[in-house]
Design goal:
By secondary structure, the protein is an alpha/beta fold. The protein contains 10 helices and 11 strands. A 7-stranded mixed β-sheet has the order 2-3-5-4-7-8-9, with helices on both faces. The chain has a two-stranded antiparallel sheet with strand order 1-6. The protein has a two-stranded parallel ribbon with strand order 10-11. The relative contact order is 0.16. It holds the Pfam family Abhydrolase_1.
Length: about 300
């Protein structure tokens, strides 16, 4: 598998993101190795909060939440998915599959970091991947927070706006990541923040991950990932693991999933679920402080 690695100098001037990256090597699934990056803060002995980002962002998305979670006494682990952030970037779209992304994150959080009693916070693809991990390794998870995400099986049609996003990012001559993130926010982003989202991608040769991910979402019942996701739904529906549903009030892509999670997931019953107001799809960017406070309150009651 051929990969690219974003030069360190691209990350030299990130606003409000002082965290030094950590790295480990994992199997790429083809006999090679991939370097995966994460940032970490908080007491090493505390139970971990695993923050998983989605498409086309990276761990920088959680910069408003990390200090609040750490101040509440939590250990925070925030990885970059393979193909994003400081993690290595396979150069072919075909290198990216849903199953591989689940396995790559499993290798990091369980094999390399040996995380246990995990609280998952998953948004966008962070939920698609994290919920699979929670279903397939339930003994490792203590709590789940779903935030503007889903677990699609292809049995329910995706909204038109999602198809528009998929077509735009797959067909664009150049993937303008910062602009795509900004378009998913309700509040304007500064030039420095937009540049930080662009930083992992010096040119389009680095963008196979962002281009690939929309095509990996199961959109038909016979999708290669559909059966594994149905199995995950079955496990999670019956699971007693507490689940907080913390969606924004302005996400046309995943907003319809909030009532489904609240109704279908046993672990969500009997919990007061917040609505993060004034936020779009990237609620961590628009209202990260509010989401972090909701997570802290949820964990305080556990």
């Amino acid at each position: 598998m051929q990969t690219l690695r974003t030069p360190d100098e691209r990350f030299a001037q990130l606003p409000e993101f002082p965290y030094a990256p950590m790295y480990c090597d994992i199997d790429d699934g083809e006999g090679g190795r991939l370097r995966v990056a994460w940032v970490e803060d908080g007491p090493a002995h505390a139970e971990p909060v695993l923050l998983l980002h989605g498409e086309p962002s990276w761990s920088f998305l959680y910069r408003k939440m990390i200090p609040i979670l750490v101040a509440a006494g939590h250990r925070v682990i925030c990885p970059d998915l393979v193909g994003f952030g400081r993690s290595d970037k396979p150069t072919r779209i075909e290198d990216h599959t849903y199953a591989r992304h689940v396995e790559w994150m499993r290798s990091l959080v369980f094999d390399a970091l040996d995380l246990r009693k995990v609280t998952l916070v998953g948004q966008d693809w962070g939920g698609l991947i994290g919920l699979r991990l929670a279903a397939e390794h339930p003994d490792r998870f203590a709590n789940i927070v779903v935030a503007n995400t889903g677990l699609p099986t292809g049995d329910i049609p995706m909204p038109d706006i999602w198809w528009q996003f998929r077509n735009a990012i797959q067909k664009a001559p150049k993937v303008d990541v910062g602009r795509f993130v900004a378009s998913g926010c309700r509040r304007p982003l500064s030039d420095g923040v937009i540049a930080a989202y662009d930083a992992p991608f010096p040119d389009d040769s680095y963008c196979a991950g962002p281009r690939a991910m929309p095509g990996l979402v199961p959109t038909s019942p016979d999708d290669p990932a559909a059966e594994a996701n149905r199995a995950a739904w079955k496990v999670l529906r019956a699971s007693k693991t507490p689940m907080l549903v913390a969606f924004s009030d302005g996400d046309p892509i995943t907003g319809g999933m909030a009532p489904i999670f609240k109704k279908e997931m046993r672990g969500a019953h009997g919990i007061e679920h917040p609505v993060i107001s004034g936020a779009g799809h990237f609620l961590q960017e628009d209202a990260g402080e509010d989401l972090a406070s909701a997570v802290v309150e949820f964990l305080r009651d556990r």
